[in-house]
Prior knowledge:
Blueprint: E1 11-14, H1 18-26, E2 33-37, H2 42-45, H3 48-58, E3 62-66, H4 75-88, E4 92-97, H5 99-111, H6 118-123, E5 135-139, E6 151-156, E7 161-166, E8 172-175, H7 185-203, H8 212-233, H9 238-252, H10 265-277, H11 281-296, H12 301-312, H13 317-330, H14 348-357, H15 370-380
Parallel strand pairs: 1-8, 2-3, 2-4, 4-5, 5-8
Antiparallel strand pairs: 6-7
Helix pairs in contact: 1-3, 4-5, 7-8, 7-9, 7-11, 8-9, 8-12, 10-11, 10-14, 11-13, 11-15, 12-13, 14-15
Bound molecules: 5,6-dihydroxy-NADP and zinc ion.
Amino acid sequence: MDKFTYSYPTKVYFSAGCAAQALKQELPKTGKTVLLAYGGGSVKKNGVYDELTALLAQAGKEIVEFSGIMPNPTYAKVQEGARLVRERGVDFILAVGGGSVVDCCKVVSAQAMLDEDIWDMQYRSGKFPTAGIPMGAVVTASGTGAEMNAGAVITYEEKQWKGPILGTAASFAVLDPDYTASVPPMQVLSGAFDTLSHAMETYLGNSDADNVSDDVALAIMRNTVVNMRRLLVDINDMQARGNLMWDSAMAENGILKVGRLTDFQAHQIEHQLGAYTDCNHGQGLAVIHPAYYRHILKDAEAKFTRFAREVFGADSAQAGLEALTAFIRECGLPTRLSELKSKVEITPEVLRKVADTCNIIQCNPRPLEREEIYEILMECL
Ligand code: NZQ
Ligand code: ZN
């Protein structure tokens, strides 16, 4: 194990119907004016909005609505939210949605307390926020684990950049599997694949010493695969949805990263692909992972062999990669970039830009050159 300090700020409420219990316990601790933040309207169709607004009203809160947070939330949307928080004197933010809503709110929370532009502060001055408007997260689509960390992934359209901005972690998270019942099947599976990716990317960082975190990561991967397969049989299996919801939180609440370095090169490539195409995050990862792993298989053969055995019951590193590729097909996830929904045609020129601008990780099995990232992307076309 590498040296570590572990502490966590997010209290988690998990169960069917737990929003009422959570909000009754948590809202008395917050100020009167609550920013109720959500996405494109799914919460209004599935009853979550009505349930939460009733609980907020019962608690005597004044609601300020912040709606229309899009998948792959933009920097402009963050600034709109931060202006609203300042203008309306918001005391508390309740983010209701998937990773996009939660991420947008984390940065809204921090930006609202700052005079300077948060992107400039982090990327030009190398400083990070130290305060934020308190927030809670009600998860309606699982996969990213965004509800249990302070890092957000934001698309800055003018800069053709998608990447991390540090914001505020939610002080509590509501995980009710029933809230995910209305998520479209492809989003359920792409979200779960994102969870699998987080665990794989963490496990493949180049820490080679024995590490209990690796055992936990492999258990999360195995559980994610088992429960995705249960959903392929019955997409409404709520027990499986619940398992995946906690797998998702576990993969990004820091536990798997304790005492080790992480990889996350596939994520860096996918994020920049998202900056140019606005593609779905989990689907982008499903396309990129097999190609990336073909390139680094020999650089981490022992780890891939263990992954093969423990996650897919396969007997070699190569067989494990084949099993992962077959699993992606079995789930009906995309296997080529041309299958992704994209705002532009995905051409070699676009992929060159992605390869030229994505972050390059130094603590993966082998740091890649930009030319090799371009090759990987071209193999996915
Ligand atoms: O906007 P609405 O109408 O709510 O529809 C959303 C959206 O279209 C829909 N949805 C959510 N809950 C629903 C529902 N539809 C029906 N019923 C419900 N209960 O699902 C669609 C996708 O939502 P989104 O939040 O975009 O998905 P996801 O949770 O996969 O989040 C993706 C974003 O998170 C970032 C990604 O890059 C991407 O921007 N990530 C955040 C991470 C983090 N903070 O730790 C880590 C990840 O690696 C990832 O990068
Ligand atoms: Zn992810």
